[in-house]
Predict the structure.
Amino acid sequence: MENVTILTWITFIPMLGVILIPFLPKAWEGASKWIALVLTLPQLAIAWFIFSHFNTAEAGFQFVHGPFPWISAFNIHYLVGIDSISVSMVLLTALISFVSVVASWGINKNLKAYFALLMLLDTGMMGTFVALDFFLFYVFWELMLLPMYFLIGIWGGPRREYAAIKFFLYTLLGSVFILIVMLALYLFSEGNLFDITQLANLDNHLGRLAVTDEFNYFRFFCWLGLFVGFAIKVPMFPFHTWLPDAHVEAPTAISVILAGVLLKMGTYGMLRFNYMLFPDITADCATVVAVFGVINIVYGAFCAMAQTDLKKLIAYSSVSHMGFVLLGMSAFTTAGINGAVLQMFNHGTITAMLFILVGVIYDRAHHRDINGFGGLYTLMPRYGVWIAFAFFAALGLPGLSGFIGEALVFMGAYKTFPALTIAALSGVVLGAAYLLWTIQRAFLGPVNEKYRDLPDISVREVISLLPLGVIVLILGVYPMPMIRLINASLVSLNEIVKPFLDTAGVVAGMF
Amino acid sequence: MEDFIKNYCWLIPVLPLVGFVFNGLPTAVGIKLSRAYVYTVACGVMLLSFLMGVGVFFTLKALPETAREFTNLVWPWIHLEAIQLDIAFLIDPLSSVMILVVTGVGFLIHIYSTGYMREDKDYARFFTYLNLFCFMMLILVMGDNLMLLFVGWEGVGLCSYLLIGFWYEHKPNGVAGMKAFIVNRIGDFGFMVGMLALFWALYNTGHATLTFTKLKTVVWFLQPQTILGVSAVTMICLCLFVGATGKSAQIPLYVWLPDAMAGPTPVSALIHAATMVTAGVYMIARLNFLFTLSPAALGAVATIGAATAFIGATIGFAQNDIKKVLAYSTVSQLGYMFLALGSGAYAAGIFHLTTHAFFKACLFLGSGSVILGMHHEQDMRLMGGLKKYMPITFMTFLTATIAIAGIAPFAGFFSKDEILWQAFARAVHGPKVYYFLWALGVLGAMGTAFYMLRCVTLTFFGTLRANDKKTRELVHGPHKDHHGHHGDLVPHEQPWNVTLPLVVLALLSLVGGFLNVPYIITHFFGGHSSGLFNEWLSPVIPLQAHHEVSSLEWVLMFKSVLVAAVCMYLGYKAYTSWQTGVDRFVKKFPRIYDAVYNKYYVDEFYHAVFVRGVLLFNKCCFSVDRYIVDALVNLVGRFGAVYSDIIGWFDNFFVDGLVNGSGSITDFTGAQLKKLQTGNIQHYAYGAVLGVVVVMILKILM
Amino acid sequence: MTITPFIIMAVILFCLGIYIVCTRVNAIGFLLGIELILNAASVNFVAFARYHENEIGGQVFTLFIIALAACESVIALAIVLGVYKNYKSINTTNISSMKH
């Protein structure tokens, strides 16, 4: 499997759209969505190929393409590859891209620009997950920011500009930290490296960056820089306030991408960079990460309960659910870290469904006030089935995929942090409370006569939901293929950190 | 045949799932199904499932007693290092009993529902949910590990939610469903903690597993383990028991069950009486080897059970809604089951579960029949004299009432008396606190006999009060006349598909008790059996050592029957000839009556403290989010903006001023110099000459 | 005989030429001034050539100048005619349209 170009293809196929769509004549504007759709299909096909040909026993990188010198003067290369940390994210990105194109079908303002930006975003996302060169990663990371800004800022809701700027500045702030640490790593590594595969070898860290027995503050600040940079993306309390605003203003498909893929980049980045490059500091700070995870879970759930805007509620539920990922990955048990990555994938699919469903009702009623509906189930029974399915998946009903991730996180985290896990479990109760309360207020009860004529969910909307629903159901009862897929590198990641855990000052089991 | 059963027993839960898919998918995409198709599919799969269950039972029976256990692996579910969980079904005597109860009673209630729901517009949806429930319940009782049990556990909670809120357009129904699910989730919280603690405590001993068959052999290793200084086993058992209190409606989490009566009556019978609410009992019986290790946890189980049995019975005194009475009766009877479990008599608990499934299902279905007959009137104050109009319903209801009251030889007598005796025996041989629990149990039994007869009397005896204007105003308020009725209400008997299940269940509650005749009685007749039921379960739940036959047991047995009979008589009299006396009592102690009538204000308390508390807290959280966290972010943003304003000003006036200044100077100079260029060649020539002259003058001067 | 008288004559011619070029407004007068300057140069060439043995460069240059002056006056007169056609005047101060 040496030097196969497949990952380059999956990353850059959408770029074709970026090139083609702007040159469409105005009269053929409608073709841009078809081009976008057609370009996401080969991506899906490649994703399936990766899924079926991925060597699950191998912990290292696979499907590696490169390294080709890019900017030789600074030792920057083009190098892509995946291991089992990123493979599920690549699959998720391909899937969500397809879904979001279908969900964007109703866009009618400035089609060409919209779909060109969407395709650019697609490349950026895919590239972020496959890049193995830190510089390349950073380029993709920033590349993704730009289309996102315009997609929210132009096609968004009434307060779109505020939300877009908040999103942009916040993430940019995070990127700055990442940039600084990237340069620190470059300067203090053997032979000035950007290559993650080589940086992962701690012997390559020199000078102030060298791993020492006592607490190395320089390394700690590097770790912190990366952590804050990624935590903003997760988003972790207290850096989460951009998310509700961005979600509320973003168009449906962009919310889907935002919740489905972008949030995972934060936790993915932590696993890829904080864990792989700074295992010693990670071991020291694990408890803090876990505490923040639990705060996310409980605080997010409480905030969600206080919402009356459906989209904001789901945004806060995302904050809550991403907390499980943080908790799971800080436990350093196989179950915990597997649960975390599984939760990343599951949250991507489930929340994508939720946002599509919110979009469906917003398209019809033009508002999202939970208390402003009532009795929707009578009027839109097929929609009601989907909403119930998605909500129960989100509250972690056993038999659907959300449960597997959460259960594994709990199983894993309890060993290391029993008290924190018990606190996190209360998030499950709260989750049931706010989701069911929402169903009760908006969908059950007497019919609101104002919405007597709302049409039920359309075929196009069902097409965008169906793949997600099927995956949620299958992974709930038969998650083994996914677990096998992600397990190998995660176990080895744990092994990297474990030696430092014993020497870490923060004793596991304290919580 | 035997191989078929062994390899295909996964069909038992899957058959209802097939029914769910066949009815549910078309309904979900909006296809209207014919009623005949719906009930053929729904009842058909249940019948097949039941037949499979019977097949399983006889297959097990044919095996030697020690070999009555096999696992049917479907596929590996979660395999990660120590976590080895499969989708696999465990067949042993305990699960076979549960399968028979679930599929048997389930099938009967499906039949009943074809009658009860015949006029409902969401006929297909109802059977879809009902099938899904049976699937989940069977997963629960057949799952071979605790996590799979939990899948069923939450799954039945989902179905319960869906079915309580079945008539969702009426707001309180949806709210009741939500309450049930959330209260159950609080219990599940405990369950999850217990499960996690169990797993990792075992992991520390090197025997991590959640599979029942393996657990049984390794729980011994847990004994020296502690959590927070308390024995690990006790902690685990208590946590799991919290789960059971949620699902099985025990103090303090019983509040959802009475509200759950908002669902259609067959649902109340199937889910909220016969099967789902007994899941907690099943779970503890399944883990009996674990609970046996912790007398402290057993004590807690027994205490909660006895207290619930007593409190539930007392609330039953003052309820007017016929289903509410039965709901509190269920709470109370579940308390008995937990008293049995807490006394170490797991088999007695399961036996009471079985007989309770018969007579309580019969009672609920009977009440459903009454409600149909009364045109959806549920208030007993408006009933009376229905004996005349609905003879079959009356006979079956009365049979079940006698059974629940514990009159020999009806089913309830055998099961309840066994429980009370076991509690008493434990008090004799062990902790003396069980005397008190036993006393509570006896008081509860007396209460049961009284309020059940009150219920029967108010419903079936006397004269019909529904057409009495004054009573109607009393019940429904003065201005709200009972809508939908023109003229007088005449109750009527129900068709065969409603009455047939009643008759079958009544027969079962009549003879079901003989499945487990106590040792003392068989001994009296010269036998040696300690009860067929106990013996059947013995591979899972070890038989208890025989205490020697004491005359005390006889005394207690007769006392139980006598007391029950007296209370029944009192219950009958109090609501017929002594009605005025009861009214006077109520008038004299309004406080007591109000407290009981309002269920001791527990709901109000919970609402005021927990619901309000959570709502307040989430407002606080969101305020923090908006006014502190987000305000900080905005403050940073504002600071950045102001700072950049200052910088911008500086830039405009100083930096840019310099740049612009140099530009404009050049501009000015150029404009001045431009004037020299006239375009007239003679001027240039002047210039040249002048230059030459100047140079020459300079040359000369220097 | 010294060279000085020749040079003085050439200077006088040159200065007259410059004076005419600088002061005459009429284009034809302007041309006459230029011819005087050229002739001043020619006188110098011939005079200097006389004081160098075996050198005819000066004479050759003078011949060249005469030929060039002829050509130049032809072209210049043509331009003057063109200007006259366009402006109806050969007054140099009026011809300023290329100034800007």
Summary: The beta strands of chain B are 70-80, 83-91, 226-227, 230-231. The longest strand of chain B covers residues 70-80. Chain B touches chain A through 55 residues (CB under 8 Å). Chain B has a mean pLDDT of 87.
